[in-house]
Amino acid sequence: MRWSEYLSQFNLVIRFRPSRLSTKPDALTRRWDIYPKGGNTGYATVNPHNFKPIFTQEQLAASVRATVLLFPSLRAAIVVDLDTLHQDILLALPSDPIATKHISADGQWSTDPNGLLLLDNRIYVPSAGNLHTRVLQYNHDHILAGHFGQNKTLELVHHGYSWPSLCADVQQFCKSCVTCMRSKPQRHKPYGSLKQLPIPERPWNSISMDFIKKLPSSSGFDTILVIVDQLTKQAIFIPAHDTITSVYLARLFVLHVFSKHGVPSHVTSDRGSEFVSNFF
Fold it and tell me: What is the dihedral of CA 266, 272, 273, 279, to 10 degrees?
């Protein structure tokens, strides 16, 4: 059967309309059986799929069951987390120097019936393993905590626990929380724009200085002073000590840079104490 014969069975007539006479194609929104004219009430009767319920009976039953078991499940999870955490804290007390010093419970120190060491009626957490992090996670990342800020998290932790450098640990933990950094706006002053350093006129006219510290000891040295020429990218690696002073740094600079290349007109550094003191 030809295509024309097939179309003739449906009394279909195709006519060409120039683009300037055509309108926006909206055939799907103009069907008479779905959108009756005049805004009458026949819309629902010609659309029986609208009477289909959104949730099935099985889904509703599961939802009711989850609602009923929500609070017992959360309460059970909290009890298990706290019991495990307190048991690990109790096991770490004998190896902690602060806990062994005050284990006799004098002055502000006391013990509870479970054997936990208390400081001002707050559980003392030793610095063993990841106990500090687990306490912070329980009071910050827990589903009942809600990722509060530094002040409120510190208040929650300090309500039941205590250890040295608690404030600093809470501040660092909140700043390193990925969820908080993504969802909460940053209220600090906008950072300044980076500016490219000018191109030096000659070699060793502009240099950069920095330290690589905390390296394994080699021939008595544990730090490397790195001096780089900004134009030629030539680098000098000088062994040094972690306790280097500005006076000793000046001596290294005179020996390795000034004696060979003269005094540079521009020095880039991280403004460490060795650079901003008597050296410059």
Answer: -20
